[in-house]
UniProtKB/TrEMBL annotation:
InterPro entries: DUF445. Residues 1-21 are annotated as: Disordered. The keyword Transmembrane applies. Keywords: Membrane, Transmembrane, Transmembrane helix. Residues 1-19 have a biased composition (Basic and acidic residues). It comes from Streptomyces justiciae. The chain crosses the membrane at residues 50-71. The keyword Membrane applies. This is DUF445 domain-containing protein.
């Protein structure tokens, strides 16, 4: 029967080996040739074919002998044996045809509905893709499977282990360093600079500054600044009295006597020092009150006066447009990146220690808090459902397109090598069952005929 299972009866085993060695293609890439395991499976298929063929030849021989014995008057038993053997041959041939029709045309004849796998390969791929889509990529199935896994509790227990938290921290640090290394500073600086500038241009700053200044004045926060300024001014005047008097004398008219200029300079210096001293020591000094009123009015103008707000906007545009400011904005990214990279590389850095502590804390909470576990499970389920529902067609297309790209002959041989041995049992069972059924039919016929 082995010759009956070849598409070409003249094929040899050498031709089979040559055919197996020839790679098929999947799309634009070659499918790998038979592995050693595939070759071993194919040898098992051949052995089972020989076994099934041997059983067929055995019942055929029994049929010949039983028929001869019946003609020679051996007795009624010869008819029973011949009937059983005849039915066994029919069952064996029918099952041989069925098994062979899966992989090739029996006897090389183009009988309809044979060579199912090579001729229906693409349809099988489509059906397989639809089956996977309907039974594995449905929302209900994904949710049930993920809910049964209990990702939240398992992940929490895993993260609660210090060595696992260390591993995740190291992986996150490596990923962060890699991402920052890949990014080009010039590109990021341009994006950061453009984003800050665009945001500043789009947002009027005067009202915000006015509200902030109004609150500072109302809370008395500006008084500490005034105290610092007048204290520093007093100390400076004490240390630079000669310079102040020289400056006053230098601005005097040339026709005034020098001793008058000196007296005027000394007087101006003393009055200026007295004013600053009183302003430093007297919280209720009139100058302080005047400054409070000025700042209050200025805060109000920043919020409501059109001219003041327009001048602030023009000043803002001039400041942002300066090259020094743009360079400062751009250089901020370099400083931030360097700081993050250094922190990510240092195992004892505050960044990595905080990340590790956060992971441990999160793992401990997830392992014992059902609400947090349910929340994590919900996030994972939602993400998975979104992927399978949004990209179900792309996922199933991967199956159908891959199967469609396989070489039909190679695919047939590959499948036959993996399941052909089990299919040969169909032939053996067909021979045995056919014999028993034939014997039963012959017995019933004899009983009814009697």
């Amino acid at each position: 029967m082995e010759w009956m299972e070849r598409t070409n009866p003249d094929e040899t085993d050498a031709a089979d080996v040559k055919q197996h060695a020839r790679p098929a293609t999947i799309g634009n890439r070659a499918m790998s040739t038979f592995s050693a395991a595939d070759e071993e499976k194919q040898r098992g298929v051949r052995r089972m074919k020989l076994t099934a063929l041997g059983l067929l030849l055995f019942v055929a021989l029994v049929y010949v002998l039983a028929t001869w014995a019946s003609h020679e008057g051996a007795g009624a038993w010869a008819g029973y044996v011949a009937a059983a053997a005849e039915a066994g041959m029919v069952g064996a041939m029918a099952d041989w045809f069925a098994v062979t029709a899966l992989f090739r045309h029996p006897l090389g004849l183009p009988i309809p509905h044979t060579a199912i796998i090579p001729t229906k390969k693409d349809q099988l791929g489509v059906s397989l893709g639809e089956f996977v889509g309907e039974n594995f990529l449905s929302e209900d199935v994904v949710r049930q499977r993920l809910r049964a896994v209990g990702i939240g509790s398992r992940l929490g227990a895993w993260l609660a282990e210090p060595e696992h938290a260390d591993r995740v921290t190291a992986e996150l640090s490596a990923a962060l360093r890699g991402a920052l290394t890949v990014l080009r500073d010039s590109d990021v600086q341009a994006v950061v600079g453009e984003a800050i500038t665009r945001r500043a241009d789009a947002q009027e700053i005067a009202p915000g500054i006015g509200k902030m200044l109004e609150k500072i004045v109302a809370d008395g926060g500006h008084r500490r600044v005034v105290d610092l300024v007048v204290t520093r001014a007093h100390d400076w005047l004490v240390l630079h009295d000669e310079q102040v008097m020289d400056a006053v004398q230098g601005g005097a008219p040339g026709w005034t006597p020098r001793f008058v200029d000196k007296k005027v300079g000394e007087r101006v210096y003393k009055e200026l020092l007295r004013f600053v001293t009183e302003m430093r020591d007297m919280p209720s000094h009139p100058a302080r009150g005047a400054l409070d009123r000025f700042l209050t009015d200025f805060a109000s103008d920043l919020q409501s006066d059109t001219d003041t707000r327009a001048r602030v906007e023009r000043l803002k545009g001039e400041v942002l447009g300066r090259g020094e400011v743009q360079d400062l904005i751009a250089s901020a990214w370099t400083a931030v990146r360097s700081m993050i990279v250094s922190a990510a590389e240092d195992e004892r850095s505050e960044l990595r220690l905080r990340v590790r502590a956060s992971l441990l804390s999160l793992g401990a909470r997830m392992s014992v808090e059902p609400r947090l576990q349910a929340k994590v499970d919900g996030w994972v389920e939602g993400a998975a459902v979104y992927v399978v529902t949004t990209y179900r067609h792309e996922i199933t297309s991967l199956i159908t397109d891959t199967v469609a790209g396989w070489d039909a002959e190679h695919t047939t041989k590959k499948i036959e090598a993996n399941i052909g041995r089990d299919l040969q049992f169909i032939r053996i069972n067909g021979t045995v069952v056919g014999s028993l059924v034939g014997l039963l039919i012959y017995t019933v016929s004899r009983v009814l005929g009697a």
